[in-house]
Amino acid sequence: MANTDDTISELIQQLKSGAVLVKHKRNGKTYCRQFFLHEREGYITYDKSNKLRGKPRIYHVHDIDEIRIGFEAQVFDQLVKDRKVKPDDKDRAFSIIYNNHRKGVHFIAPDMETRDLWVKGLQHLMNKRGQQRQYHIIGEDNWILEFFHVADKNKSNTLSKKECRDLLAKSLNIEMPDNIFEQMFYKIHKTKSDKLNPEEFVQFFKILTRRKDLYDLMQKFVKYGYQQTMENIYMDRNELLYFLRLMKNSNMQHINSLIQAQKLIDEYELNTEFREKGFLGLDGFRNMLLSRNFEIIESSYSRQIYQNMTRPLCDYYINTSHNTYLFYSQISGESNPEAYNRVLLMGCRAVELDCYDGDDGKPIVKHAFTLVKSCSLESIIRRIQPNLFKASPYPVILNIENHCSPAQQKQMAQILKTYLRDHLVTKHLSDKDPSVLPSPEDLKYKVLIRGKSTSTSTISNVMFQEELDEYSSQNSLRKDVEPELSELFVYFMNVPYQENDYTKENYTPFHSSSLAEKNFLKYAQRDPLDLIVQTTWRILRVYPDGLRQDSSNLDPINPWNFGVQMVALNYQTDDDMMALYYGKFRDNGCCGYILKPDYLIKAHKTKFNPWNSSINFDQPQILTITIISGQFLPRSSIKTKDIPDPYVRISTHGLPCDQQTQKTQVVDNNGFDPIWNETFEFRIRFPQMCLMYFSVLDYDTLSDDDRIAYFSAPVTMIQEGYRHIYLRANNNDETHSTLFVHVDIRNDGNANNNNVNVQNIIRIQF
């Protein structure tokens, strides 16, 4: 069936009509319910039975991570094993994975047709939501009416003044002065009943979302703009062209005629009268500025792989996870295949497996000497296999910490070969130079195994102990590895870290080393160039110290400054370090591999030293950023009752000379549409190494200020002109919250004059 508008509409209507689905729980209990898509298409739920206490469970579309067909969830493994479901049920089964892969609901439909109907319909709704920007949803009546019906406590299908005020405070995070509220309320509501019906509330909401900041901006570019109201102000096609020419927006450079200006108006202006006259009103202007063309980062950089992917692996930063099997802290919870699926679908390319002997003769993954429950290695590999290359075509690295007996090492090797099949690299690529690492392009759709393969008796015990410092003496790695397993460590043989003179004599590019964060810092301070030079020909990995039982993260900036390719972070922790990490790997199509700057790749010639950056290896810039306003900012948590008092903290993270932090004033009691209009200047000497981090925080006089949303990205991705920043939730989920900013970028000539330019050095040396 073709995906025409009519067939999709029919499909969604069938979901609204509902179907009888049997929900299966891990303990074997089943619940037969009439499930249906709610009329406003925001969630699925079921009809309440007479025996059911409380309200029916709701599954919001925006919380869904994956829809899986068949028995492709761990719960079904147990149900099949316990004979609670039959193998024949597989063709009618599907699972909804939600809440960042932490939860799932598992169904068996009456037939395959019903199963496919639900899978296709829910996938369409997920895709539709993923493509929507803020201007789509604030113009969508169904989305607006969700607020209405939540606020309608007595189910009268009207909102009283009190209910309307409560809605503004509790759902939209705004405390509105009485006189302004009264003026808006009676502008819509003409009768004396003091209640808004759904149609009136939609009008009320649309007036509420008119942007005062954009009205002020339009007035500067429109003839007689200061005489026009928010309702009737407009740009004609000539004024629109003039505005776009001044914006330095590369996405809009092709708009250079009245015909092309009209096409923009046709796309973004919803007022038919304005559109036919060639006018762009305030709402249309807002819609245009909220589109992808006006996002703060260059969209092609985040949505397309544009870097050279044919360099050796050591020339790239690699998105790497630490203790991937955990969803929560280092000491409780369970090892879970879904934790791997979550990070893989977020673009992570290197994950960790701590393998131990299982009681049934098969290896398990667990965090030793903690309360973390184990999971079979086979279950993890089988479950992640379908998701290995959905986010990126480039190689996945399985970092194996091997604590298994010889017999279970053989089992481990067999499991990897069985489920990964042709994806698994088992020998060197025959047509590649054996003296250098292959490239990401060479290893597309391949899985590499990283592990320690031989005894380290020839290497100092001190160095070996440093490699294992996150483990107790009872938890040491196996020193003798079975050939069936060690032969899989083709390009990633894990060896202790040594100084460069030793490694040049004893290691190859296929020897990789791990360093705990404190040991990394020790070597970086002792001999920075020695450490950096090693990253020009082999791969280093840095991981959090074992004392971080709270799953907190090390700052990845320092290891990146020294060229370390694999900086392993705890993905389960939503802290500032992970926010920077997400920003770093937003570049290059989010493929998980970022090409390092040329001066790091050629550090053996440039002698680049992050501690002493007197030479300009980069093109210094001055970024002037005006934080104008915010829109639809959330609360710090669903539990708090306070309206946010937001402010924006802007920080840059790179070499020590580029570490800066500035912040706006606090706006009291307004998460809906705070306005700042504050300007900040940042001088960046090494833009290729620098990240820009926007944190929106909720000011609190009695405790630490909570982060409520954020955005981070490499400085090299930041675009000039008027831009919207689509903020991320603390767990990196996309939101419809935004900041409106203006960015000006210019070269810093003074920095170039005061320092030696690296290009002259490179010309001489090369």
Automatic annotation (TrEMBL):
Residues 139-174 form the EF-hand domain. Its cofactor is Ca(2+). The keyword Hydrolase applies. Keywords: Hydrolase, Lipid degradation, Lipid metabolism, Transducer. Its EC number is 3.1.4.11. One of its GO terms (biological process) is intracellular signal transduction. It catalyses: a 1,2-diacyl-sn-glycero-3-phospho-(1D-myo-inositol-4,5-bisphosphate) + H2O = 1D-myo-inositol 1,4,5-trisphosphate + a 1,2-diacyl-sn-glycerol + H(+). Residues 602-729 form the C2 domain. Residues 485-600 form the PI-PLC Y-box domain. InterPro entries: C2_dom (IPR000008), C2_domain_sf (IPR035892), EF-hand-dom_pair (IPR011992), EF_hand_dom (IPR002048), PH-like_dom_sf (IPR011993), PH_domain (IPR001849), PI-PLC_fam (IPR001192), PLC-like_Pdiesterase_TIM-brl (IPR017946). PANTHER family: PHOSPHOINOSITIDE-SPECIFIC PHOSPHOLIPASE C FAMILY PROTEIN (PTHR10336). This is Phosphoinositide phospholipase C. It comes from Rotaria sordida.
